[in-house]
Every structure is written in C-alpha cells, then in structure tokens.
Amino acid sequence: MTIETQGFGLDPLKIKRIREAVEAQMKRGDKPRRIDSMDYSITPVFLLSLVDFSLEHEGDDALEQEYISRYGIQNRRNGETLTECLNLVFLEMGRLKLGPDEKDKCRNLLERFIFSMKYMHLLKERPEGFDDPLLVDLYRASELASMTVNRRQNYDKIMTTELDRMCEISFALKKGRAEGEAIGEARGEARGVAKEKLESSRRIARAMRENGLGADLIAKCTGLSAEEITAL
C-alpha cells in the first residue's frame, strides 16, 4: 500500500511499486545452476494507493463507489484481460468533498476511513461514531506514530514489561496444568497398582482356602484381614 500526496511522477512510481512486489516473490527453481531456472508461481499483486487528490479519467464510469478506480492489464482494442496477477487500485481521497468539520455527513465506513486519512492531522481524537474496528486500530496506530521519542520509549518499555508478565503467567499456568496432570496420572497409576495387588492377594487367599490352609496362615501370606478372608 502506498500513500501519494502529489500526482507528478505517479506513473513510473506505480510501475516501480509493482516491480518490487513481483521481484520479492520470485525465487530460484529446482536447478539453481541454470540462469533461467526461476520459480514464476507468484501470487496476484495488488497495488493499493491512497492518493490525496483526484485522478483524471476519460469517463464518469471509471469509478467504483465514487472514490475507487481499478486497473489491470488488458487488450486496448477489445478489453480482453491478459492476466489477473497485476492489479492497481486507487482510493482517491480528493473526491471526498466533506470538510474537516463535516464528519457527521460520512455515509459509510469507506467515507469515514477517507475522512480520517484526509484530516487525521487536524483531529485531536477519534470522532464520535467512528467506532468501527478498522478505525479504532487506525487511530490507535496514529497515536503511537505521533508520540515523542521519549514517550514512545516509555510506552514500549511498559508494553514489554506487561507482555513479559503475561508470558510468565501463561507459562506458569501451563506448567501447573502439566504438573497437575502428571500428579493425577501418578495417583491413578498408584490406585491401579494397589487394586491389582489386592485382587492378586484375594486370588492367592482363595486358592489357599481351597487347599485347606488355615485363616491365620493365609492372613500372614497375603496381608488380608480375617474378615476379608472369611468373605471370599
């Protein structure tokens, strides 16, 4: 995305921006030794330009939503599209005729966004009614950008401390949860072992009784009580 404040030299600048976006995606193919081995599978490139003026168009049908004009690469004779990979979108802020005191006349989110970008330097705070998440983030970003060096350093220090504290709390919660799960598993295993040991003692006691051995001897060998042996 670019923000342009003057129309002079806009054409070569547009080409430069697109070229940079395309080159940033290009990489060598599977055969790096070959000069022509390039991977050209790039994703579509959109150049979104916010221009603080109005572009000149050949007709009134060139605009979308009063402020937006879109361009691609097409056949000049029949309008056939050559590729969908290169796209230019211009948001012409100069076409918003509202003054800096006419924020209440903005009809939709797009106009509130254009109004904000156009008059941000004149506004002391986010206007009432500009509550869209996009605008909230925009004004928060502008507040950070307009901070003095010392204030920004203090802000960054506070945020770093707060984020570190949140990370420590998160780590402690995860550690506590993991330890709790481990203790629970250990207790469960211990209960399982104890239950299996009890069942084994009962089987042994039952076999000893069937062979006519006395209860006292069975109790000494298995650790079961006289009542438990009698109940078998």
- Going across the major beta sheet, what is the strand order? 1-4-6-5
Mean pLDDT: 77
Summing up helix and strand content along with how strands pair, one would put the structural category as alpha/beta
Shape: elongated
The SSE order reads: EHEEEEEHHHHH
Poorly predicted parts: none
- Strand portion: 5-15%
**Radius of gyration, in angstroms, nearest whole number:** 37 Å
First-last Cα distance = 83 Å
Q: Counting H and I runs of at least 4 residues, what is the number of helices?
A: 6
Structural domain count: 2
The major sheet is characterized as: 4 strands, mixed
Q: Considering DSSP H and I runs of 4 or more, what fraction of the residues is helical?
A: 40-55%
Total beta-strand segments: 6
Walk me through the topology.
Elements: E1 2-4, H1 10-25, E2 27-28, E3 38-39, E4 45-51, E5 68-74, E6 81-92, H2 109-119, H3 133-145, H4 149-210, H5 215-222, H6 226-231
Parallel strand pairs: 1-4, 4-6
Antiparallel strand pairs: 2-3, 5-6
What do these coordinates show?
About 10% of the residues are buried. This protein has helices at about 10-25, 110-120, 135-145, 150-210, 215-220, 225-230, and strands at about 1-5, 25-30, 40, 45-50, 70-75, 80-90. It has about 230 residues and is α/β, with parallel strands linked by helices. It is elongated. A hairpin with a 6-residue loop joins strand 5 (about 70-75) and strand 6 (about 80-90). It folds into 2 domains: about 1-95, no CATH class; about 155-230.
